[in-house]
Amino acid sequence: MIYRYVWQATMAAHFLVIAYIALGGFAAWWRPRLAWPHLALCAWALVQLTGLVECPLTALENWGRARAGERGLLPGGFIDTYIEGIVYPEEYVAVVRLAVIAVVLVSWAGLAVVIRRRRRRPSRTTGTSAAPAPEASR
């Protein structure tokens, strides 16, 4: 029973990671520090596209599935099992990948604009106090 929870939790984490890869750059508009984990996950996604290494989440899910007596993921891994042919038709793989890359690039361009605007704006914590100085009495 615990192995079922392992692979199901891993599957949910996998969906969250993929969503963060696609949309995490927009979260960095709110908190620029989120750009670093987003950049790391995007780099990892590019490595995964080469097919040279197996995703650790895929390995963990397959391990949990095997221990639970379930069939493993398709040879293409998580995306081939849960997304391609289900969320979008398989013949649109290249189009979807390009669309995700475009979304990521737009989010990073927007992040650059957000950071530039924040640097131009004077800080609220420095400078003089917000209350006006009292006028001298006559």
UniProtKB/TrEMBL annotation:
The keyword Transmembrane helix applies. Keywords: Membrane, Transmembrane, Transmembrane helix. InterPro entries: DUF2784 (IPR021218). The chain crosses the membrane at residues 12-30, 94-115. This is DUF2784 domain-containing protein. It comes from Microbispora amethystogenes.
